[in-house]
Amino acid sequence: MTTKGVEGVYLHTRNWGKTAKFLEALGYKIEFATDHGSGTLRHEEGPYFVVAEVPEDQEPEAQLVLRVEDADAFRPDPIVEVVTPFEETHWGTRQMVVRDPDGRRWSIEAPLKK
User: Fold this and answer.
1) Are 107 and 82 in contact, with CB atoms under 8 Å apart?
2) 5-17 burial string, b = 16+ CB within 10 Å, else e?
3) How far apart (Å, rounded) are the C-alpha atoms in residues 5 and 14?
4) Residue 72 backbone zone (phi > 0: left; psi -120 to 50: alpha; other: beta)
């Protein structure tokens, strides 16, 4: 089983408000926002952005999220370094984190089994 494409992007920012306005200017709409500098934006049916503020001393990062249909059936090729195996998230998915050859982290998400 392979991935089904980009599901979303986790994006760190130093200013939630400015980043949200930037994405809104590009056609994204806020699905929800917290009172502590984070939220989710989506463009129609396309991939989502989860945006979260980080402290000034932390470098903002971006992490791609790829989708699979079934976490139990997904077996990454040995070239893919698994950082953390699939775990349930508090937002209702199962998530695995892998690392590419340059050291970047990628998330792989699957729906919870019903």
Assistant:
1) no
2) eebbbbbbbeebe
3) 28
4) alpha
Give CA–CA dist 82/74, Å, rounded.
12
Q: What is the greatest pairwise CA distance in the chain?
A: 41
pTM above 0.70, yes or no: yes
Tokens representing 19 are 């980043």
What would the two tokens of residue 68 be?
């699979």
Q: What is the pLDDT along the chain (114 residues), one digit of tens a residue?
A: 789 999 999 999 999 999 999 999 999 999 999 999 999 999 987 899 999 999 999 999 999 999 999 999 999 999 999 999 999 998 889 999 999 999 999 999 999 987
List the structure tokens of 114: 């019903």
